[in-house]
# Entry
Amino acid sequence: MKGTRSERAREIFDVYTRDVSPDDLQRLFTHDTPEAYRFFARGLDEDRYAGLPWWHRVPLRVRAFFIAFTLRLPPARRVLYIGALVIALVGLLRLFRGFTPVEVPLGLPFVRVAMLLPAWTDGTFALIVSFILLNLLVLLEVADRLSLKGELEVAREIQLAMLPRGTYRVGNDEICGLTRPANTVGGDFYDVLTLRDGRIILALGDVAGKGSPAALLMALLLAVLRTLVDEELEASALVERLNTQICRHSPASRFITLFYAVYTPGTGELTYVNAGQNPPLRRRAHGAYERLGSTGVALGMFEGSTFGSLHTRIDPGDTLVLYSDGITEAEDPAGEPFEEAGLEQAIDGAAALDPAEMGVRILKAVEGHAKAPRFTDDLTILILKRAPL
# Structure
């Protein structure tokens, strides 16, 4: 029995230490810890403490560092962390047994000085050391997380810069898109491009998954899409070429839904390919709705897939709304999704607004339905509105 326990203990020890080297431990204290301190100490006025004696300077710097660290935590976690510290300090005080006189030798024969030192319950020192190490671990993990978050914020700015901004106007037509990633970066995208003959490309898609992997694949697709658009291919041929490139250059487990359309502003003619994307809603001037259904599977599933194209017409007074599944699948606290019915109701309520204001109103309607500050999926919408005659 003892041998079995010893073997299990050795196995557990090996599992937790097999990837650890002495250099890793040295780097933890000589590099990672100073880096974490510098990360949280940014903005602290070091000159303020320069002229103070060390016994005054150290407590002030510790206090300033503690405030800087805790303010970087999200509010709820900050309260939880401070609460844990208070509980730990209360427990530590309960282990305090008072002061006891201790004779301290001064290095001279028979010369000792009596001093009062705090006395603690046995094992208190081990608890204090473990408490310090656990807080060091929290400090390092939070620093790593916030550093990564900062990099993702930059990635978010780059990603949003890749998407069209503002309202595109041509004649009596207005086009505007909005997106709200579930994470710092997301996999939803939309695009509005103008061909040399004046026709307009409308595209909206959704990369499977969320976060950085989806964002990278989204950037790849946009780059390939814009390159192929310059070749002025027919809609179905372009999507087939795009599918081939996605199959060859993306992981097999990733696929992309896409609605791609070529719109002629003067006549309202619309040629589109729907590769597995939610069917866009066309609201007629009199309030009736039509759906532009699927014409093929999602991109990246099969390299030899073919995609048909369909033709329709956006008449004066009509509104075309392209959207990602994050909008219709957004759930309220009871688990009820927003669905197309909720989207249609939001569109009806904003029918008199321009596309930019309509998009904002729709996203607010989704937020009001979900009653949550964060969503599990990206929210993206692209609206084409043709003015009535």
About this structure: DSSP finds eleven helices and 13 strands in the chain. The two ends are 89 Å apart (CA to CA). The chain has two domains: 23-155, 164-386.
